[in-house]
Amino acid sequence: MESTGFRKGNMVTMLSIDGGGIRGIIPGTLLGFLESKLQALDGPDARIADYFDVIAGTSTGGLVTTMLTAPNTDNRPVYAAKDITNFYLEHSPEIFPQHSRKSFVNSIKSMFGQAGGPKYDGEYLRSLTNGLLGDLTLKQTLTNVVIPSFDIKLLQPVIFSTTDAKLNDLKNARLADVCIGTSAAPTFFPAHYFETKDAEGNSRSFNLIDGGVAANNPTMMAISQIWKEILMQNTDDDRIKPLEHSKRMLVLSLGTGAAKHTQKYSAAAASKWGLRDWLYDKGATPLLDVYGDASSDMVDFHVSTLFQALDCKNNYLRIQVRTK
């Protein structure tokens, strides 16, 4: 998609997919159902990428985003949404292993110098993504994508997008590198280093870890990218205020599931915890639960409030599965 279409009068459709490791199977299942309904309306060749101007994803959500938007030799998505579930069932035990007691305890030991390196070497993920995506780059996606990661050297978020890649070759990273970078969960996978180059021989280096550090729920980040695009495309005499343009957005935000921790923790118990207890307590991971849920829920709170304030709350739908 060469033109973004983020101009006055146009409705902008956006899909956002949270991070969550193996739980990427949840949005994959939802998207498979949605795509089947779209195919019932428009024929068997319809794909998710045909209906969204922007697809954003963090970590495992970034992998799903790429699968939905990377082109095959026929310039159609490499994966139909219905195939994502089988992809996770086949590969997730090697790519996104669940946080077992053994693996998490080993991660704690690593932090205290009792063991070295991440739990997994990441070779399976590297091999899989390189084999699937080859040398495809961000600017080749079939619709606009937004995939966050975090540069551990610069200590700042890095937002990969199709729009930026088309404007600057140094931001036109290989999709395989973007997927590996946004999925490089600390203690479980190694940080990912790569470089980009432009026609003049300039280079840019990236030292990336999991995008969930910056935005586990990338919805607000994607909206901000759309606002930036609006400001860039419109002249001073014909510029729409970004907030007003939000009335012309249709946003579908998919979570990857979250356990409902009602009464699971208490101030009485937490007041006695040290570092190790916050990291691992009787099979639970309090610190990860707090940071992960808080990050995603705060984004949902802000986006929901934004659309309600603009009197267009029906333009935003958040789907999050919560289990007891």
Could you explain how this protein is built, in words?
The structure is a single chain. With 324 residues, the protein is of the alpha/beta class. It has 13 helices and ten strands. Strands 1, 2, 3, 4, 5, 6, 7 and 9 form an eight-stranded mixed β-sheet that branches. A hairpin with a 4-residue loop joins strand 3 (144-151) and strand 4. Helix 1 (25-42) packs antiparallel against helix 3, helix 2 (60-69) runs antiparallel to helix 7 and helix 5 runs antiparallel to helix 7 (175-182). The longest helix has 24 residues, at 286-309. It starts with 11 loop residues before the first strand and ends with a strand. Residues 15-223 form the PNPLA domain. A motif (DGA/G) lies at residues 210-212. Belongs to the patatin family. GO terms for molecular function: monoacylglycerol lipase activity; phospholipase activity. This is PNPLA domain-containing protein.
Set down the secondary structure blueprint.
Elements: E1 12-17, H1 25-42, E2 54-57, H2 60-69, H3 84-95, H4 101-111, H5 123-133, E3 144-151, E4 156-161, H6 162-167, H7 175-182, E5 192-197, E6 203-209, H8 212-215, H9 219-233, H10 242-245, E7 249-254, E8 258-259, H11 267-270, H12 275-279, H13 286-309, E9 316-319, E10 322-323
Parallel strand pairs: 1-2, 1-7, 2-3, 7-9, 8-10
Antiparallel strand pairs: 3-4, 3-6, 5-6
Helix pairs in contact: 1-3, 2-7, 5-7
Family: Belongs to the patatin family.
Active site: 59 (nucleophile), 210 (proton acceptor)
Motif (GXSXG): 57-61
